[in-house]
């Protein structure tokens, strides 16, 4: 069978991923600073092409910038059930029960205390409770796949959930996302805002996925992968994963901020 | 010891049950005199509206306080449903998902001490969020505002909301130049 040039294949995407990786390696060799975040324009992820600015970001050096402070959340913003995604319906969701826990810190290593962590994910069959998800995998009436919690006084979060399944998407022919949980995090400053995705160790889909591979720095990419931690697994109950998070971006000093 | 940042990843298309909440754009207490409306559309590089963007807003209270207040996502302890802000504290935080036409509407009080509302943009296709500022024209003197002064006229204009009528301002976000309209100025903080 001859290849249809109009169909975007994994081979084309994989070649572009490889090209971006080699270009990054060249940049490093020429003395560029490592880049922990993805470039906003990353062609293998086709949706990024028309949705990223072409002009450089304008650097704000203003120490009075409003963005150096940020929103706060409290006990009224969550309920006790929000951190257990397996208890939000009348019955139990299907799948591999798991817990994920970790510490949220700022780039100086200080714990981010009392801040909001929000997660969302597909069910164990790889389907989101979202009407635009057309993947013909079963919906689970006992799973919405949404959670939130506040970090404790050491910056820790914990969620109980089920392991999400991988799922197909339409970036290219035969595109599959590795299993992942979406995370949204707040620091003490709006500049520290982070939305990201946590992946599971050993997933064979990593190398094919343009979203994970958009982080061209290998060490940075590995920081998106949780660790299986047997000491966090609960007998007869759930598997345990650890995933620590470090928020980038400046914040007002603690003395100025007083919180 | 160095603490290396966790990389950003796109918010994707399926955050719907997780992030937006009823009343997310109503930072101002209902009926509060002096409430302003800031609204607009998010566009991509083809000039098409972006129907799956999520905008977050952060601003000082009218008295200039930047401490914010909890309760933006306040929940009913019985049902878990969002019950809205108390209307007493000013939380300073808003969150709105764009509609099918790429539109958002924010109702808030004027920020104290600065002439702008801080904006953070998330979207499917955007691997790392973008910061910008919506400067309110009736509060802004472009000649004295350091960020605006540093920009050429055509770039500066993208940060200035446009007054439509008393208390109503339009602020569009253009993720990329579409050949007709200037791309919005996006910000980095160091």
From TrEMBL, chain A:
Native source organism of the sequence: Planotetraspora thailandica
**Keywords noted in UniProt:** Dioxygenase, Oxidoreductase
| Family indicated by similarity | Belongs to the intradiol ring-cleavage dioxygenase family.
This entry's Gene Ontology molecular function terms read:
ferric iron binding; protocatechuate 3,4-dioxygenase activity
GO terms classed as biological process: 3,4-dihydroxybenzoate catabolic process
**Name of protein:** Protocatechuate 3,4-dioxygenase subunit beta
Q: Name one Pfam family in it.
A: PCDO_beta_N
Q: Where is the Intradiol ring-cleavage dioxygenases domain?
A: 100-128
Fetch the Gene3D superfamilies from UniProt. Aromatic compound dioxygenase
NCBIfam families listed in its UniProt record:
protocat_beta
Q: Which InterPro entries match?
A: Intradiol_dOase_C, Intradiol_dOase_core, Intradiol_RC_Dioxygenase, PCDO_beta_N, Protocat_dOase_b
């Amino acid at each position: 069978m001859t290849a249809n040039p109009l169909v975007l294949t994994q081979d084309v995407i994989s070649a572009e991923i490889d090209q971006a990786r080699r270009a990054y390696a060249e940049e490093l060799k020429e003395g560029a600073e490592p880049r922990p975040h993805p470039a906003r324009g990353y062609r293998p992820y086709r949706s990024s092409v028309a949705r990223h600015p072409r002009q450089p970001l304008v650097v704000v050096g203003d120490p009075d910038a409003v963005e150096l402070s940020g929103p706060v959340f409290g006990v009224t913003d969550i309920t006790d059930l929000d951190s257990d995604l397996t208890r939000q319906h009348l019955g139990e969701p299907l799948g591999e029960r798991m817990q994920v826990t970790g510490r949220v810190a700022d780039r100086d290593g200080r714990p981010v205390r009392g801040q909001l962590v929000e997660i969302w994910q597909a069910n164990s069959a790889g389907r989101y409770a979202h009407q635009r998800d057309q993947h013909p995998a079963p919906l689970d009436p006992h799973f919405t796949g949404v959670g939130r919690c506040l970090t404790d006084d050491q910056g820790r979060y914990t969620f109980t959930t089920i392991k999400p399944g991988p799922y197909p998407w339409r970036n290219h022919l035969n595109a599959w996302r590795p299993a992942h949980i979406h995370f949204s995090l707040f620091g003490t400053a709006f500049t520290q805002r982070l939305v990201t995705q946590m992946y599971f160790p050993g997933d064979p889909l990593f190398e094919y996925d343009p979203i994970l591979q958009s982080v061209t720095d290998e060490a940075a990419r590995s920081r998106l992968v949780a660790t299986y931690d047997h000491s966090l697994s609960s007998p007869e109950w759930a598997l345990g994963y650890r995933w620590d998070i470090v928020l980038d971006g400046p914040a007002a000093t603690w003395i100025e901020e007083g919180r | 010891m160095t603490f290396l940042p966790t990389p950003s990843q796109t918010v994707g298309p399926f955050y719907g049950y997780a992030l937006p909440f009823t009343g997310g754009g109503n930072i101002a207490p209902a009926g509060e005199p002096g409430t302003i409306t800031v609204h607009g559309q998010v566009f991509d590089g083809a000039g098409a509206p972006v129907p799956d963007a999520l905008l977050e807003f952060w601003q000082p209270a009218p008295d200039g306080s930047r401490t914010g207040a909890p309760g933006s996502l306040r929940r009913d302890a019985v049902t878990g449903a969002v019950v809205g802000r108390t209307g007493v504290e000013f939380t300073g935080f808003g969150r709105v998902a764009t509609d099918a036409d790429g539109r958002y509407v924010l109702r808030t009080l004027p920020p104290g001490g600065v002439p702008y509302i801080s904006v953070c943009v998330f979207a499917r296709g955007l691997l790392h969020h973008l910061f910008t500022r919506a400067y309110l024209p009736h509060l802004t003197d472009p000649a004295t505002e350091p960020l605006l002064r540093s920009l050429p006229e055509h770039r500066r204009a993208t940060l200035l909301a446009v007054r439509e009528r008393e208390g109503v301002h339009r602020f569009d976000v253009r993720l990329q130049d579409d050949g007709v309209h200037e791309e919005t100025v996006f910000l980095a903080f160091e």
